[in-house]
Design a protein that fits this description.
This protein has 244 residues and is mainly alpha-helical. The protein has 2 domains: 90 residues, no CATH class; 133 residues, DD-peptidase/beta-lactamase superfamily (Beta-lactamase, 3-Layer(aba) Sandwich), CATH 3.40.710. This is Beta-lactamase.
Length: 244
């Protein structure tokens, strides 16, 4: 998943929570500025000192992040934009693949679907899958198992890694349902791309429309993220990847 235009989605958003940024005599929390959450492409700004942080130390932290190839960074406190990376101006319109950071976006979409009453987190995916797709063991995996990477699916490092670079899977959901179960669902955490690929497919079935269409209307539009600000890969069956 890529993005451009200085927006959250598609960039690896880095949240710096560093104790050394706090000044020796920080203002009481009750006196710190709190910005109103924005819905759009501009963010309310404040100086670090207005929210209880030290400008010089924050600048050092941002420089350190840049030295570790964190090329586009925004730091927020109390809904205020208080710092930006030194290379933001050069990288703000460059699309980047944020790889597994997309999993967090998928989790947000799942939360919205749950809030809208369209998704039951505790339900087995059997509730949403078409008849005949996957065996009983795989259909017993719950949405929560997929969200928490505890489905028990065997990890296919080679196939998962290749599709992360080139979206060549014929059908990522079918492939996920064809992976052997190494552990009973809900018992062992095992980081896998197929979990979230299967989750995006289940989400599409639950909300009754293409995942990216639902995400654009329910998540991105309210944040001021336009459809042309990002590219989100699909497999050859048209299913949205959960991590690309």
């Amino acid at each position: 998943m890529g993005r451009c235009g200085g927006l959250l989605v598609g960039f690896a958003a880095l949240s710096l929570v560093i104790g050394g940024v706090l000044p020796a005599h920080a203002a009481p929390a009750s006196e710190e500025v709190r910005c109103t959450p924005q819905s759009g492409r501009e963010f309310a700004r404040a100086r670090p000192e207005r929210v209880g942080l030290d400008s010089a130390r924050l600048a050092d932290a941002l420089a350190f992040a840049a030295s570790r190839n964190r090329l586009n960074v925004q730091v927020f406190r109390h809904n205020c934009l208080i710092g930006e990376g030194p290379t933001n101006a050069q990288t703000g319109n460059v699309a980047w693949n944020i790889w597994s950071s997309t999993k967090s976006v998928v989790a947000l979409i799942a939360g919205i679907a749950w809030d809208r009453g369209k998704l039951d987190i505790a339900a087995p995916i059997d509730r949403y899958l078409p008849a005949g797709l996957g065996d009983a063991e795989h259909r017993a995996i719950t949405v929560e198992n997929l969200l928490t990477e505890t489905s028990g699916l065997k990890i296919g490092a080679l196939s998962e890694g290749l599709s992360g670079v080139i979206p060549i899977d014929p059908n990522s959901a079918v492939q996920a349902l064809g992976m052997p179960l190494n552990n009973p669902p809900g018992t062992v955490f095992s980081y896998s791309q197929r979990n979230v690929d299967l989750l995006t497919y289940v989400l599409e079935l639950a909300v009754g429309e293409p995942l990216q269409q639902f995400a654009q209307r329910e998540l991105f539009d309210p944040l001021g993220i336009q459809r042309g600000d990002y590219y989100w890969a699909r497999d050859r069956a048209g299913h949205t990847y959960g991590y690309a």
